[in-house]
Amino acid sequence: MDPDPYLVITDDGKLVWIVDGYTTSLSYPYSATLPVTGLDEGANYIRNAVKATVDAYTGETSLYVFDASDPIIQVFENVFPKLFRPASEMPPDLRRHTRYPEGFFARRPRLTVFFICAIRRCSTTRKTYGRSRTACSASPDNLGPCSRLT
């Protein structure tokens, strides 16, 4: 879950918390494992597939699927068919307050630069030294000379 839930006042004056929920994996094929806040081992797959709402007075909780194409949330929906609702069922006065998670927004440009640099570094290494792509080492927090691109 996102560490930054936010409080919304509905049209009829109720207070409702909205929390972003993520699906993650360490087993997604052809993906690099990256550090993720709150996950000791990181993840090589992460999606903001669910948004939870919690009524601040009654505690009533609802889970809305915002990324129905996510294979992990599809499995959860099959296992727990009554637990999840489609995003279209979220009341409009709550839905207009949903947002893109700040942690995702801040991380995405850095990851894009990381992968551009990794590809450049690997292709240069392969051409110059005849090494394979696995010989390249880079991380999103240590971009080396490519950090000038940011």
SSE pattern? EEEEEEHEHH
Average pLDDT, rounded to a whole number, is 77
Uncertain spans: 123-138, 143-150
User: Which oligomeric form is depicted?
Assistant: single chain
Number of H/I helices: 3
Rg value: 20 Å
- Share of residues in helices: 25-40%
Structural class: alpha+beta
How much strand?
25-35%
Trace the largest sheet across and list its strands.
1-2-5-6-7
The count of strands amounts to: 7
In one word, what is the shape? globular
Alpha carbon gap, first and last residue: 28 Å
How would you characterize the largest beta sheet? Answer: 5 strands, mixed
Number of domains: 2
What features would you highlight for this structure?
150 residues; alpha+beta; five-stranded mixed sheet; two-stranded antiparallel sheet; 7 strands; 27% helix; 28% strand; globular; disordered C terminus
